[in-house]
User: Fold Histidyl-tRNA synthetase from mine drainage metagenome.
Amino acid sequence: MRTPSSADVYIVVSGPHASGFSLGLIERLRDELPGRRFELNLGGGALKTQFRRADRSGAALAVILGDDELQRGVAALKPLRREAGQSESPLSALAAAIESALAVAAAQT
Assistant:
């Protein structure tokens, strides 16, 4: 259930390089998608713990950024409010992929 202060997108981070990169990434995404709310996991923790936080945040979408994804120049996108598979997007096209995934999520609710 979304609340007025809920994030649209929760950023899950794994690895030291991805953690450092994620701060600049979220700033860029906020500039590119000013109508969207983002929450970045800053509490550390295992991926399972971070996904629990993402679920509690009310976000419709998780963006997963690990050191492996960063090395390949991609981020993974996982819908949180519906049964759907995880997909990947090049970091250069991440804003468009997020907007598309959120539109699909909104159409299915």
Summary: The mean pLDDT is 90. The helical segments are 16-32, 47-57, 67-72, 94-107. The chain has one domain: 9-107. Residues 29 and 52 are 23 Å apart (CA to CA).
